[in-house]
Amino acid sequence: MKNIKSHFTFLKAERSGILCIIALIFSVQGIYFYTNPTATNSNLFASQEVRAYQQQIDSLKLIALNTKPKRFPFNPNFISDYKGFTLGMSTEEIDRLHEFRAKNKYVNSAKEFQTITKVSDSLLNEIAPYFKFPEWVTQKKKRKQTYISKTYTKKEATILKKIDINKATVEELRKVYGIGEKLSARIVSYRTKLGGFTTKSELDKVYGLKPEVIEKIWKRFYVGEVKITKIDINKATVEELRKVYGIGEKLSVRIVNYRTKLGGFVIKTQLNDVYGLKPEVIEKVWKHFYIQKPNISKINLNNCTLEQLQKVPYIHYELADEIVNQRILREGFKNFEELSKIRNFPSDKLQIIELYLHIQ
Question: Annotated Gene Ontology MF terms (predicted)?
Fold first, then answer.
């Protein structure tokens, strides 16, 4: 304990030296604090000039953050991973382009680029203006567009007024873009076969005419009035029936066979029973034909035989047998309305059936 205490016992001269050293340290620190040129001075940062410089620095930083990198024209066929990333493309979109290029194929238009990469419309609209394709690609497109434009303009310039297509010559038809020598001759031949076009839809049946060409035809021509000499449908041949748009070889034969079975058409509604005839085709038929009623030998409903009844349209064997049985039970029919009460009788055809019968 005495040894430890002896370490903290100082002489008067030693104590005076220690105090001098402490005073010297504080003095040096005070001088350093007040004379250091880099020391913080609150008045310095409060000055107007420093604040102005700081505002300029902040503005430049903000502009740098909001400024997008400048883009230059580039060939989309050579987009690298980094380039695609800076453009805003996803990894999948970049990979699709690289897979396409790996097949030694090239993108030649912005539309083709979108088809291959499947980028969104918004991204395509943003980067497409910077696409730069080789001159041979752009020049080829310009030449093709110029050629089409000049050709179309030249043909359109010849269209002064519409012409009746039923009077148009082969040369006039060939002026329509898309119609050559064969098609123009084919149109005239089909028109002759029909006896003249009566509706626009009839032109659709000309073999080889595409919809876009037909559209151009009606910008140049119109369907004029055709004088049609109507024919008695009960005397019409298969060839005459085939001239109606919508009636081919099978339908024309079917009409003639059904007419023979009836002994001749009596009213227009009978044509509706020919299988396969559409309402719009039947409407065209009556523009070319009329009905001259054939001479019908009516049979007496109350004394005719089963065989005679079967010859009446719409009456088959079972129905004829039922009519004969009912006639016996009723002791003869007094009017045609009684027929409609027979089971399975076609009441909607009663008016036609009456044309072939009479009651005595």
Answer: DNA binding
User: Does 69 map to a domain?
Assistant: no
Number of domains in the chain: 4
- In whole angstroms, what is the distance from residue 46 CA to residue 138 CA? 63
- What pLDDT does residue 9 have? 67
Query: 252: Cβ–Cβ under 8 A, 6 or more apart, which residues?
Result: 238, 239, 241, 242
Is residue 204 assigned to a domain? Answer: yes
Query: Across-strand partners of 74?
Result: 131
Residue 114 maps to a domain: yes
- Going by C-beta distance under 8 Å and a sequence separation of 6 or more, which residues neighbour residue 177? 151, 152, 155, 213, 216
The reported pLDDT for the residue numbered 218 is 92
Same-domain pairing of 209 and 244? no
Angle between the N-to-C axes of helices 110-117 and 91-102, in degrees from 0 to 180, rounded to the nearest 10: 110
Closest alpha carbon to 308 in 321, 319, 299, 318: 299
Fill in the DSSP letter of residue 163.
E
Q: Cα 308 to the chain's mean position, in Å?
A: 59
Measured CA to CA, the distance from residue 91 to residue 102 in angstroms comes to: 16
Asked whether residue 41 carries a pLDDT value surpassing 60, the answer given is: no
The two three-digit tokens of residue 147, written as one number: 């050629």
Q: pLDDT value at position 255? A: 93
Domain, as residue range, for 206? 163-222
Q: Of the candidates 199, 222, 245, which is a domain's last residue?
A: 222
Q: Which tokens sit at 153?
A: 């303009």
For the stretch 323-328, contacts whose Cβ atoms lie closer than 8 Å and that sit 24 or more positions apart, written own/partner, are: 327/301, 327/302
* Contact assessment for residue 291 and residue 270, using Cβ atoms and an 8 Å cutoff: no
Q: For 34-40, what is the mean pLDDT? A: 59
Q: Which residues contact 98 (CB under 8 A, 6 or more apart)?
A: none
> Over 70: is that where the pLDDT of 153 sits?
no
Q: Which residue from 88, 185, 102 is spatially nearest to 130, judged by alpha carbons?
A: 88
Identify residue 264 by its one-letter amino acid code: G
